[in-house]
Design a protein that fits this description.
With 497 residues, the protein is α/β, with parallel strands linked by helices. It has 14 helices and 18 strands. Strands 1, 2, 3, 4, 5, 6, 9, 10, 11, 12, 15, 16, 17 and 18 form a 14-stranded mixed sheet that branches. A two-stranded antiparallel ribbon has the order 7-8. A two-stranded antiparallel sheet has the order 13-14. It folds into 2 domains: 4-271 and 409-486, Rossmann fold; 291-340. This is Alpha/beta-hydrolase.
Length: 497
């Protein structure tokens, strides 16, 4: 049964997108304390390495419309402005029988990113376009597709079922497995991506190539959304898309009409999240305190040392070795104690179901894995035949690569501030039962972020917002920035299936 939280979020996100249009414009990886060619390619056109060429130089012919795509084989396309990138895509009749669905790969030489695309159920010729990615780092966006906001759900052994509250009810919707090594994405020759900045370049290039080839979407309002580590991904991805517009304009192409970013239960700033872990365990910020008084006293004693060490080694002057030591200390003193409780880090109101490293505390993830391991499903999706292993919702190796690069230690609220200064709206929404990326920490960074609209935003009091007359959470909003809590929702903004 659909929770009020998810219904409310759907209405809230659609409202933000609709408002933007009128103005023309983790699941995380299993925490460390809980886890020990397509052969039928039919290229339409290939491009040699070329200089940056304008649309009118005769080097490029767009596909124009998705209707030209086949269910039997991939169509391959690219653009001379991005000579190292190609996209292969096919029509894939699955999941939502009411609209057209497509799947394919973004090919960046030896790296290959898998994606899903669903047309809007409402008016695909006019509705906005939304990009979605799950977090981790290292978790597949199949979790968002089949557990949360996609057009179908996989909740049993019987396959997929229609989801009436999907975000594609009012928008054209992307889901992308990124970076390489996640979900059905893969790479040859040991290629990998281990920082958000590297991943952003691939995503921005794909967005530009897609919009240029399928001109039916040119100029359409575009929104980038994600959850969990998406708090890192989305601000940097959107910044890359925005900055890339200068390159597109110089080449005579249509810039991407980026209108908003949406971050659900995001890990945008680790520094503000650490004290919030203590608040969530030792106060009634969400549920009745779950920790003993003794444990809470120790955490509160450790917190100032954690913060000072982090500021000195990770913020004021970054020292990789000392910063990692600070992070390890903070994790041990402020996070490890949570996992000793047996609670679900994504829903503090519940105990973890199953081994967190195998289920993320949600056994339904195994249903999704079984579904995506079916040969008929993989054939329909066009999964590259080189991928013969079992599907995995999250990749520990990708998570470790990002951890070794210390990618997670760098905040991204500065990117959010820069986007706001450029007229890109931001929605930060958080389920009140999530612990790992909780509402207290997210509210802290939104209130502390420096930007020209800060004074007006801080002055706004939290107020109730309602769905069908029932209070769904609290919100504050000013100058394009909206913060919202969703009562009774966890990390994935739903409380039950």
């Amino acid at each position: 049964m659909l929770s009020l939280g998810l219904k409310a979020l759907g209405l809230l996100s659609v409202a933000v997108a609709a408002n933007a249009s009128k103005q023309s414009f983790l699941s995380l990886n299993a925490p460390r304390y809980g886890r020990d060619k397509q052969s039928s390619q039919a290229p339409v056109k290939t491009y040699a390495q070329s200089h940056t060429a304008s649309y009118d130089d005769g080097l490029f012919t767009p596909l124009e419309h998705l209707s030209v795509l086949s269910t039997e084989q991939f169509t391959t396309f690219g653009h001379p402005v991005f000579p190292n990138y190609n996209v292969r895509i096919k029509k894939s009749d699955f999941c939502d029988g009411t609209v057209n669905a497509y799947t394919g790969y973004i090919d960046i030489e030896a790296r290959h990113l898998f994606f899903y695309f669903f047309e809007s159920r409402s008016d695909p010729a006019k509705d906005d376009v939304i990009f979605w990615t799950n977090g981790g780092p290292g978790c597949s966006s199949s979790l968002g597709l089949f557990m949360e906001l996609g057009p179908c759900r996989v909740l049993t052994d019987n396959g997929s079922t229609y989801h009436p509250e999907s975000w594609n009810s009012n928008a054209n919707l992307f889901f992308i497995d990124q970076p390489v090594g996640v979900g059905f994405s893969y790479a040859e020759y040991g290629e990998k991506v281990s920082t958000t900045e590297e991943a952003a370049k691939d995503i921005a290039a794909f967005v530009a190539i897609f919009f240029e080839n399928f001109s039916q979407f040119k100029g359409r309002p575009f929104h980038m959304a994600g959850e969990s580590y998406g708090g890192k991904y989305i601000p940097i991805f959107a910044s890359e898309v925005f900055d890339q517009n200068a390159k597109l304009t110089a080449a005579g192409l249509t810039p991407i009409n980026l209108q908003s970013v949406m971050i659900g239960n995001g890990m945008t700033d680790y520094f503000t999240m650490w004290p919030s872990y203590v608040d969530m365990m030792c106060s009634s910020a969400s549920v009745f305190p779950i920790q003993s008084i003794g444990a809470c006293v120790r955490m509160k004693q450790a917190l100032p040392r954690c913060q000072k060490w982090t500021i000195d080694s990770c913020i004021n002057q970054f020292d990789a070795m000392s910063c990692k030591a600070a992070r390890d200390f903070c994790d041990q003193e402020l996070e490890a104690t949570f996992f000793e409780t047996g609670k679900n880090p994504y829903d503090i109101s519940k105990d973890c179901e199953g081994n967190i490293a195998e289920t993320l505390c949600y056994p339904v993830t195994k249903k999704i894995t079984s579904y995506l391991d079916r040969p008929d499903v993989r054939s329909t999706l066009g999964v590259d035949p080189s991928l013969t292993g079992n599907f995995s919702s999250c990749s520990n190796s990708v998570g470790e690569d990002f951890n070794l690069a210390q990618d997670e230690l760098h905040e991204t609220y500065t990117h959010v501030a820069a986007l706001l200064e450029r007229g890109v709206r931001a929605l930060i929404y958080v389920g009140t039962y999530d612990w790992i990326c909780n509402w207290v920490g997210n509210e802290r960074w939104t209130l502390g972020m420096e930007w020209t609209g800060r004074e007006a935003f801080v002055k706004e009091e939290l107020r109730d917002w309602k769905v069908a007359g029932e209070v769904a959470g609290q919100t504050r909003s000013a100058n394009g920035l909206t913060f919202a809590t969703i009562y009774g929702a966890g990390h994935m903004v739903r409380s039950s299936w």
